[in-house]
Amino acid sequence: MVTDEHGQPKFTYKESKDILGNVTKVVTDGQGKQILSVKGFTDIFGNDTNTVTTELDQDAVDSLMGFFIDK
Q1: How far is the C-alpha of 50 from the C-alpha of 65, rounded, in Å?
Q2: What is the superkingdom listed in this entry's lineage (predicted)?
Q3: Which of 7, 9, 64, 69 would you label with 46, given CA atoms 20 to 30 Å apart?
Q4: Is 30 a domain residue?
């Protein structure tokens, strides 16, 4: 794992939006390995769905989900 000058893990956050307005949020580590991906989708009825793909354990996912959904 790549770390900063304080020994903390380095992460990169990227958000993108497709032509339909669906948002994908991705966190990668300092080496470019995808750690967490949240793909948002809104159907024709206005219902929001978030699909999460991750390499993290459940505790780490739980702690990050609020950050992503609220962002």
Answers
A1: 10
A2: Bacteria
A3: 64
A4: yes
Question: Which residue range(s) make up the domain with 37?
Answer: 11-70
Amino acid residing at 68: F
Domain membership of residue 6 (yes or no) is no
Name the β-bridge partners of 58: none
- Please tell me the total count of domains within the chain: 1
Q: Which two tokens stand for residue 18?
A: 């497709």
- The answer to whether the Cα torsion of 57, 59, 62, 63 is positive or negative is negative
Sign, Cα dihedral of 52, 56, 62, 68: negative
